[in-house]
Write a structure and sequence with these properties.
The chain is of the alpha/beta class. It has 10 helices and 18 strands. A 7-stranded mixed β-sheet has the order 8-7-6-9-12-17-18. A 4-stranded mixed β-sheet has the order 13-10-11-16, with helices on one face. Helix 2 packs antiparallel against helix 3. The longest helix has 27 residues. Bound molecules: 5-S-methyl-1-O-phosphono-5-thio-D-ribulose (MRU). The site of 5-S-methyl-1-O-phosphono-5-thio-D-ribulose has 16 residues, from strand 11.
Length: 344
């Protein structure tokens, strides 16, 4: 994706260093964060300097490769095992993180170079899967189409292209008249901050929708299709995605609007039989009680937006049951939730 005329990936690795677009500073500043140590990369996953299933999968793979490259000559095995555990404890829900760590760990048992090569392969596959999802998902988008998306499953959430937004980019490039409704996605505002920034950057017409306005918008007949991403998909098709996705799926069924999930097969977890097996991350209530943004003079500030003395809950994801999902757009094609076993 081009930013200010320069081609960027969301995250990449050169030598022992990992570089990533700092998503905590978007949309106010475009800054590249550099990590020279697997522990710093872990911290960047935890504090969401990089976020989104595919991007944290790539970050976790790169962190595992960094651990192999920086392992001391003494107690190497202990160091690597500790690094693997540290990476696996950064964030619990996105399947891609665990998928990438396993692949790079196995490769690294041969040599540090094999770990590095495998981490690069995981990132490259993320890009080709995202492109293929764009190609298949484009078939669902009519010549003039209003699309709602939730959170950010665009190129910032992956290494490039994205999942939910990839079909939109493909359709836009094909000359279709697409319009995107971007859910703001409280509490962290990935829709208002990141999806809107991406769409602005790509020149795609869009508007930000308050999270509470979905049903109103659907009732106006101004939405043709909903496409969201996924963080983990169970064997029966139940899908964990950003908090608030579930309620959009319920509303979509009420209004008869097709509801699609877009995700690569690296997001599927057949060890989870149903959605109730998926671990849902609980984040700090600070993210609900405080908000950050620039004031009228352009200075970035964090302010309290809730009554002092109150606490809050902050589940980061919810699970949409398979029976509310019209179809899943993967790099291998579009399937019904019940067809998942045929993919593997
Ligand atoms: O908490 P995040 O921002 O890492 O959440 C991930 C997401 O962006 C969404 O759930 C997304 O729709 C799926 S990940 C591509």
């Amino acid at each position: 994706m081009k930013v200010n005329g320069i081609e960027y990936r969301t995250i990449w690795m050169e030598g022992r260093s990992v570089f990533m677009i700092d998503q905590n500073r978007l949309p106010f500043e475009f800054v590249i964060f550099r990590s020279d140590d697997y522990r710093t990369t872990c911290q960047a996953i935890k504090d969401m300097t990089t976020r989104g299933a595919g991007a944290i999968g790539a970050a976790a793979g790169f962190a595992m490769a960094q651990a192999f490259l920086m392992a001391p000559a003494k107690n190497t095995e202990e160091f690597i095992q500790q690094a693997k555990t540290d990476i696996q404890h950064t964030r619990p829900t996105a399947r891609n993180l665990f998928y990438a760590v396993e692949l790079v760990f196995e490769a690294g048992l041969k040599s540090p170079k094999s770990a590095f090569d495998m981490a690069q392969q995981v990132a490259a596959k993320d890009i080709s899967d995202s492109r293929a999802i764009g190609h298949f998902g484009n078939e669902l988008i009519s010549e003039k189409c209003n699309i709602l998306t939730h959170c950010n499953a665009g190129w910032l959430a992956f290494v490039d292209y994205g999942t939910a937004l990839s079909p939109i980019y493909t359709a836009h490039q094909a000359g279709k008249k697409v319009f995107v409704w971007a859910d703001e996605t409280r509490p962290r505002g990935q829709g208002a901050r990141l999806t809107a920034w991406e769409l602005n950057n790509a020149g795609i017409p869009h508007q930000i929708v308050p999270d509470t306005a979905g049903a109103w918008l659907m009732a106006q007949g101004k939405m043709d299709i909903i496409i969201t991403g996924a963080d983990r998909i169970a064997a029966n098709g139940d899908t964990a995605n950003k908090i608030g996705t579930f309620e959009k799926a319920i509303m979509a069924q009420y209004f008869g609007i097709p509801f699609y999930i877009a995700a690569p097969t690296s997001t599927f977890d057949l060890n989870c039989k149903t959605g109730s097996d998926i671990v849902i991350e609980q984040r700090s209530d600070e993210e609900v009680l405080f908000q950050s943004g620039t004031d009228e003079t352009g200075v970035l500030r964090k302010i309290r937006v809730a009554s002092p003395g109150s606490t809050a809950i902050n589940p980061a994801f919810d699970v949409t049951p398979a029976n509310l999902i019209t179809g899943i757009i993967t790099e291998k094609g579009i399937l019904k939730p019940g067809e998942i076993p045929s993919l593997f």
